[in-house]
Amino acid sequence: MDEMDFKNRLSWRTISREPVYKGPIFDIHGVRRESSDGRSGLFIEVVAPLWATIVPWFRDSSGTPCFLMVRQYRHGSDSITIEFPAGMVDKGEDPKEAAIRELREETGCVPQGEVVELGSVSPNSAFMNNRVSFFFVEGVREVAGQSLDTHEQIDILRVPVQEVLDCMGTGVFDNGIMMMAQAFFLRHAQKHPELLS
Fold this sequence. Notes:
Elements: H1 3-10, E1 13-22, E2 27-34, E3 40-47, E4 51-59, E5 65-74, E6 79-83, E7 86-88, H2 95-107, E8 109-111, E9 115-121, E10 132-138, E11 140-142, E12 154-160, H3 161-167, H4 176-191
């Protein structure tokens, strides 16, 4: 079976889309769809903004590869996490510019090297319609203090790359978007093994 056969058989046609909830961060729509074999149903679609994450890499004074990361409280999980700088892409903003802006706001740092796009994925295609883009930068330079949103409290951390790789997915490193960022970083590091040693 070729790709078009799968698309024709598995795709659902959108019949209607109605707003159910309008919120400060995302909206919810009820979407009625019909399958290729005639079944229909009402599904939930979370209408969320694009997200951007940046993976800032540097060597510390001893030459150890490190990430610049942030520690903060997360309301959804009621927990403190360690993450790469990240946030929502403002309307009309390019995801790369949003990643650089989040780096600056959360850490007071700007990229020293080229900002490389690592990839973009759907964070949860089961019910969300947005995407998250990932970027990498080798080297950062502190230019100012933090410029945080009203309800943000963020610690700035310098964490050895190997510690992050060893701990990702556990404890304070259990944010799923950070797992995605790590996967993109590891794929990038296959072409640049010096990032790991």
